[in-house]
Specification:
With about 280 residues, the protein is of the alpha/beta class. The protein is built from nine helices and ten strands. About 50% of the residues lie in helices and about 20% in strands. About 25% of the residues are buried.
Length: about 280
Amino acid sequence: MADEKKARILVIDDDPNLRKSLSDILMAKGYDAVSAKDGTEGLALFRDAFVNVALVDLMLPDLPGLEVLGRIKAGSPSTEVIILTGHAALETAIEATNKGAFSYLQKPYELDHLLMNVRTAVEKQLAEQKIERLASFPRLNPNPIIEIDSGCEITYMNPAAERTFPDISSLGSRHPVIQGVEEMFARFQESEVRQIVREVKAGGSTYEEYLSYVREAGMIRIYTLDITERKLAEEALQRQLDEVERLNKLMVGREVKMEEMRRRLRELEAEHEGTRAKDGGGTR
């Protein structure tokens, strides 16, 4: 997103007059504003398209505003959330901040102050996105990176992916690395999950995959990490642990048998002593 004026702002408030007036003002300022009357409707709009900033009322009729905040940040950490409330309290302000809120404004708020918060939140997000883009440089990344569009077609592979998976283009969705990507798209689109981690085996190696849903681009970006050596080490360690457990059980079993033999010996000694006592009593 190159222009902050095109940012999408989501207003979640059960007051219809406030909701409409705030949306109208945001659109007049050049933002793409959408609104919802409660948390459920707001989260549905949030899932439909990328939201830059969400303005969330603390007291919604169906869900607590802090829960909506948490679910938005869990689904899209880069989305900034501004909490609006007519019932300000230090405890909720602290909790909102801990959950990742950009700011916490008390009603009635000054419109200029609210717009300044929205503008600052968008600018912060743009700066973070630029840093992330500059830092990533997928072409130079030593680990394979693959991008899949909503039609489950490969749109990009960095050189590391081309070297590591030379057969992926011919196999397509049958290749283990991108197998099941259709279900992944459905899962991303139907929930607030934005990243899935899984393990796959390909070409005799084991890979850890990080599948991230890039909502604004409608694609899944797959980062793969070769963890073959780690898995072999884990398996070797597990074999050692299994062997130790087997030996422990064997030793415990032997100890049980020895204790049983000692108990039986004590019983025999007691019987023998009893017999001797009887015999001794008869001779007297």
